Amino acid sequence: MGELPQQLDTNLRMLAGLEDRLRSVEASIRSAEDRKASLEAQSHLVGRTASTRTTRNGNPVLVFPNDSSGSLEANLPRRRRSWQT
């Protein structure tokens, strides 16, 4: 930034540009903080209502209390045998 009086216009334009960038960065920060709060709330809800289970191939999955996939998976071998006979 210049220090001489004839550089005042340049300095003012630079200042205006920097102020615009500051407002943009502040808005981005607010948006990121809102998203973070939302994700933390969702994570808290999932943590309270779900448990983690590991599949046969070692991948973790979330299991919710009303999820019947565990009983379906347990019945799968019996059902397969009944279809083959």
Overview of the molecule:
- With 85 residues, the chain is mainly alpha-helical.
- The chain has one domain (5-84).
- 68% of the residues lie in helices and 9% in strands.
- The protein has helices at residues 8-49, 69-84, and strands spanning 51-54, 60-63.
- It has a two-stranded antiparallel ribbon.
- β1 (51-54) and β2 form a beta hairpin.
- The protein is rod-shaped, with a radius of gyration of 29 Å.
Concise overview:
This protein is mostly helical and 85 residues long. It contains two helices and two strands. The protein is 68% helix and 9% strand.
Strand content: 5-15%
* Total domain count: 1
Along the chain, the helix and strand elements come as HEEH
Largest sheet: 2 strands, antiparallel
Strand order in space, largest sheet: 1-2
Please compute the radius of gyration using only Cα atoms.
29 Å
Question: So how many helices?
Answer: 2
- Give the fraction of residues assigned to helices: 55-70%
**How widely separated are the two ends?**
86 Å
Q: Which runs of at least 5 residues are low in confidence (pLDDT < 50)?
A: none
What is the 3D shape?
rod-shaped
> Taking all residues together, what is the mean pLDDT?
83
- The count of DSSP E runs of length 2 or more, i.e. the number of strands, is 2
Q: Give me the secondary-structure category.
A: mainly alpha
Record the SSE blueprint.
Elements: H1 8-49, E1 51-54, E2 60-63, H2 69-84
Antiparallel strand pairs: 1-2
